[in-house]
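User: Please run a holo structure prediction.
Assistant: Happy to. Please share the sequence and the ligand.
User: Here you go; the ligand is adenosine-5'-triphosphate.
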Amino acid sequence: MPNRDQASNLRRKVQATAVPAAPNREPRTTPDGTAVSPTPRLHTIAVTGGKGGVGKTNIAVNLALTIAQLGGKVGILDADLGLANVDMLFRLNPRYTLKHVLTGEKTIEEILLEGPLGVSVIPASSGIQALANLPESNRRQLIAKLSHLAHILDILIIDTPAGIGDNVMSFVLAANEVVVVTTPDPLAYTDAYALIKLISQKEKRRINLVVNMVRSVAEAREVAEILEMVTKKFKLNISELSFASYLPYDAKFRHALRKQVPFILEYPESRSAKCLLILAKKLLSVMTRNSHRNDFFANVEAFQSNQMAAQKQSE
Ligand SMILES: Nc1ncnc2c1ncn2[C@@H]1O[C@H](COP(=O)(O)OP(=O)(O)OP(=O)(O)O)[C@@H](O)[C@H]1O
Ligand SMILES: [Mg+2]
């Protein structure tokens, strides 16, 4: 069970942090008084990394809970096909996924599950591949359906699968903020570099780097410095490589996973919880500053249309 005293301590400590203002949900009217539907916007964060098993899902889930503790209405789009996926970490058993939204059997609201602290989970696993292969008209419909989430959420965190395929990239590029997770393993940061390079070839973005499973802050810093050096050396087109946070290697992550209790609720006073809080605060502060770039679902659509156009040209 979560330690509620510790959780409320943490909440008190972070009260001063601003969560980006919730989208304007007040109904608007035209000059003649006709009501028009409001157009709320979502702030979105894609958690990605290139290599498998570096801790993307763990970070996505615990970041979502940290932001929820800070007062945000948070959702997680579970685009992960890995073993320790979001549903499992939250002990949820989804009957329906994004696939059923695709087929029109369910609405997006109907497939939402509620996790701890009111965090919404959108089980997508089996729908993600289908999304990448959809004909354009169906895709537009689906994206319109997904955009309903903006009426109920402030922030959507997308837990991406490993790799750098189109299905991963479309979500990464469409999100407001990209969190790239790596570990000190050279294979992991080589894959992280390959992912950052691919992003830079599509769009000039800020990369929020998290070095996970480190033995010391110095080790995390070293990895961040190596990545910064190579991105500069090869003149990658990125606006910033921000060393957003690190997480120590902590066997308690595996304990929490075994018990199927989210780490942050079980160990709110741990070093890792503090590092996640630093990450959440940094992301919230940049999203508040850059809140104009937040039409996530339109961005997904634009990216995928471009991909299709490029594909047609090369045929
Ligand atoms: N900081 C950490 N310390 C110790 N173990 C960790 C840490 N972060 C994650 N782990 C463990 O590493 C394993 C992989 O984590 P996770 O499933 O989050 O990775 P992933 O990148 O999402 O993997 P996939 O690519 O399969 O989706 C899990 O067993 C998790 O508990
Ligand atoms: Mg995962």
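The chain has 14 helices and ten strands.
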